[in-house]
Design a protein that fits this description.
2 copies of one chain form a homodimer.
Chain A (H helix, E strand, L loop, with lengths): L14 H9 L8 E2 L10 H18 L1 E3 L3 H10 L2 E3 L2 E3 L4 H6 L5 E4 L8 E4 L2 E4 L7 E4 L3 E4 L2 H13 L21 H12 L11 H15 L1 H6 L4 E6 L4 E2 L1 H12 L3 E9 L8 H22 L5 E4 L1 E5 L6 E2 L3 H17 L3 E2 L12 H16 L4 E2 L5 E2 L4 E3 H18 L6 H4 L1 H7 L9 H10 L11 H6 L5 H15 L7 H16 L7
Parallel strand pairs in A: 2-11, 7-17, 8-19, 10-12, 12-13, 12-14, 13-16
Antiparallel strand pairs in A: 1-7, 2-4, 3-4, 5-6, 8-9, 14-15, 18-19
Helix pairs in contact in A: 2-10, 5-6, 6-7, 6-19, 7-9, 10-11, 11-12, 12-13, 13-18
Chain lengths: 513, 513
């Protein structure tokens, strides 16, 4: 099965198949390429204090690698002080080990036009990850199913501004927990041609992700190239569990990328102060990335941070807050100094509905993500209710707003056309620019335009039913799902993937919970 | 009347009056003081190109001062080339004249605790300005009245994060157009103790603003201090009408501040390109500020930009867009190089409702305003439907979000307490920070907390009626208006103000439209 023809169509395929492929061509931005600076809110002194403290934490406090004797052995051999499951890392060692991780890497998609470069001045946008619930206006809040999952994959595929198909866009709770990853991977691989993430919920599921990717891309291609970027959470504070680390080991050994990401609710999993949180985050990422390089030197990794604040009245995590922004800006600076690609931010919010709260908090976080130098933004669309819910309407709202980030990132052109001196001379005081030559030749590309939001005159808007953003989004979800056409895929590969999934599923009893 | 006792209570007043004053003490942030850098998106070369081009525009194309022979005379005397109403300003002259404008100034409030410093690293936040309509959930969209106006003044007074009472928070359309300014000023002066703006719709109304301020502060105090910051729009492109300039002349002559602000819908009143718009904006501000200094050297001024994009399909202005952000960032850099305080941004959006669109667009604009170095943000709360509507719910939503800007601006502390090394040592791998000593002693001030948004568990939220942000905001508007207590004012001053308004109103026939 893994000997199936590599990359779409290379193994042959007739004109019909090629026609099918071209029929479903959709427009998609390549990536966000920043032509604007990052906001650097920590000065050199602050950066050095935090870096020094993080090394102190690694050396004095250390980190736990839980139920993972191989990891402890690797650390011991590398020169760390291992005692029980506690690994204390001498000052400078983790930083030194991190140096073999690439500062940027290409994640390949089955459609090479959708390959993404993760690192440098780029930002790659991927959908929400992990919610057990979905919500839409018609059906309200309910447990997510595999059918919901497929819809989100289609919506991400149809989005001009999402570069990546993501991973667990919602938890398909109607599929046994030990088999979900197979259906999810199959959906990403066949319903979209954008890059995707692998399964991390068990080492053997990571292995399945590799094997399915080998069917899709060819075995040799997978060994020589990165085709998955997967999310490895650290159990903050400073604990690396065997499940997540086991998955990471599989991915690293196969040259596949991992996002090594502390998961922080400030005040609970990290100190209540921003500088303290940054210290812990840096220590955790240093140890995690260093460990990936002990597994395989040069394995691609992304330094991550997931951070929310906490409402000290209720204990609820809060999103789109200034303190989360501080951590995100600061972590960007620290990770750039390490020369690592950076994952953070997203369409974060704590609202139950895709309303104004959801939008304020999400916009705060999305803008902050752009300006903090994030290279991979998971959760860029669809997040609701603190990540418990993937919302269909919110998904297309966020996806639309991601267009503003693309345009902001372009920066300001100052070539002769952009200077527009002829236009200013032509129009003169008291005139207007609507009809002038410069406007005529530039207006089509001059301004970002929403594909969703309402720009109509009040009277028209009222006649059409006085719809709010959620209602507009409901209509857009329906339109996109109606317009959706599956991107062409070599039938032999598709069959190989289905066979693999069926065979695997048949080999295991169902497990739930 | 203008000989009335100066500043609150100085002319006497008993214990009862003093007790009344202290009873209504409300919490209000002094100002936003930035401890984070601005985002500088233009490089030196781009800045120099735009600066050079702006001077070329002033020299070759020039600006019109309409129906204002005094202005033309002043320009001629200053060395400009005046032909008809066209003023062509030799390269460097306007820039030179701008040098006498202060880089920062204090605007005094009748309560000295509410004085604001406009310039430097500060940002002062003021409410929406100008909408002819209001909206709330109960009453929908309707023409604004003086009663609505008073409610907005009260809401701004009650806000912790609005530093300024603003000006025409809505157009009180039930009051004759030639008398509105009197009622509006009376409301600002008596219902709030925050600083306010003067009337600019006619030179004589500017004069009334001065005279009423003299009653409130004392004549001498007004001549020696700035007690108003008023909005003077330029009719872009490059036209300075006699009404606005006439008002500006009155304010400058009396040492009162003007915001000199091009009003731009990109592609209509300025070139469709960002660099072209910045060139025109800089030329317009240079000429306007220079002119203020010809009226009175050292008169306080603020360099403004109001910019929106245009939807080239419908011609509608659009808000919270990336191109508007580019102009706002760029103008901030250009004006800082001129050493002038900067006005821009606001809670801009084009939505008809206080929904997700309104919030996305507003958040985009508010965040951008903070990071572009704005010193005076008009329209910081309440803006809806492209500025046609002042929304009560949106007002309290925005006012709440302004808290995030305050906290973001604080930057990251790195003192020993913030470093939290003891906490990290105390908690260790696998622990949690909720109960640790550092969290206990810091949690109250660690995180910004919304006074409006929903942080409740899903079940509680559902039991309480599954309210969206607008519904929460409706309740908050009602609560604030119920809790409102008028800040104490010397009864003699209050009476003097009422007398002035009555006498003025009686002296004029009503005028509408």
């Amino acid at each position: 099965m893994t000997e199936a023809p590599t990359r779409r169509g290379r193994g042959g395929g007739g004109a019909a198949r090629r026609a099918e492929r071209t029929a479903v061509r959709i427009e998609c931005a390549k990536t966000i390429s920043r032509n604007i600076p990052n906001l650097e809110i920590l000065n050199e002194e602050a950066l050095e204090i935090i870096e020094y403290n993080a090394e102190t934490v690694l050396e004095e406090v250390g980190v736990n690698f839980v139920e993972n004797p191989t990891a402890l052995e690797r650390w011991k051999n590398a020169g760390a002080d291992v005692s029980g499951e506690r690994v204390r890392i001498p000052r400078g060692l983790a930083r030194e080990l991190c140096k073999t991780a690439p500062s940027s890497f290409t994640q390949h998609a089955r459609n090479p036009e959708r390959n993404v470069e993760i690192g440098g001045k780029n930002m790659v946008l991927a959908p929400v990850y992990g919610p057990p619930f979905v919500r839409d206006a018609a059906g309200g809040r309910r447990y997510a199913t595999m059918e919901d999952f497929r819809k989100f994959v289609k919506l991400a595929y149809m989005s001009k501004w999402l570069h990546h198909s993501g991973g667990t866009v919602c938890e398909p709770t109607d599929v046994p927990v030990n088999k979900r990853h197979l259906d999810m991977l199959l959906a990403h691989m066949t319903l979209s041609d954008k890059p995707y993430m692998g399964s991390v919920t068990a080492p053997e599921r990571a292995q399945d992700s590799i094997e399915m990717s080998e069917i899709l891309f060819g075995k040799e291609f997978v060994q020589q190239n990165t085709v998955m970027t997967s999310l490895i959470n650290i159990n903050s504070p400073m604990q690396y569990d065997d499940v997540m680390m086991g998955a990471m080991e599989v991915f690293a050994a196969n040259n596949q990328a991992s996002i090594i990401s502390p998961f922080i609710v400030g005040g609970a999993m990290a100190p209540v102060s921003v500088a303290g949180t940054l210290t812990q985050v840096l220590a955790e990422v240093l140890a995690g990335v260093a460990y990936s390089q002990l597994v395989r030197k040069g394995a691609p990794v992304v330094a991550g941070t997931f951070v929310s604040s906490i409402d000290m009245n209720s204990g609820a995590p809060t999103f789109g807050t200034p303190e989360a922004a501080h951590v995100t800006y600061g972590a960007g600076q620290l990770f750039r100094r390490l020369g690592l690609p950076y994952r953070s931010a997203g369409s974060f919010n704590g609202s139950k509905l895709p309303d104004a709260q959801a939008a304020y908090e999400s916009a705060n976080s999305l803008n902050m993500g752009l300006l903090s130098g994030v290279n991979f933004m998971l959760h860029a669309a669809g997040w609701l209710e603190g990540g418990l819910v993937a919302s269909f309407e919110k998904f297309v709202m966020d996806a639309d707003q991601l267009g503003t980030l693309h345009h902001l990132a372009k920066g300001i052109e100052v070539d002769e056309n952009a200077q527009a001196m002829d236009a200013i001379r032509e129009v003169g005081p008291g005139g207007h620019y609507l009809g002038c030559a410069h406007t005529q030749s530039n207006f089509k590309t001059a301004f970002w335009r929403s594909d969703l939001l309402d720009y109509k005159p009040f009277e028209t808007w009222e006649e059409e039913g006085a719809r709010d953003t959620e209602a507009l989004a409901t209509a857009r979800v329906q339109k996109l799902l109606t317009d959706y056409q599956q991107p062409g895929i070599d039938p032999g590969i598709a069959e190989g993937l289905r066979d693999y999934v069926e065979t695997k599923k048949a080999s295991m009893p169902d497990a739930f919970g």
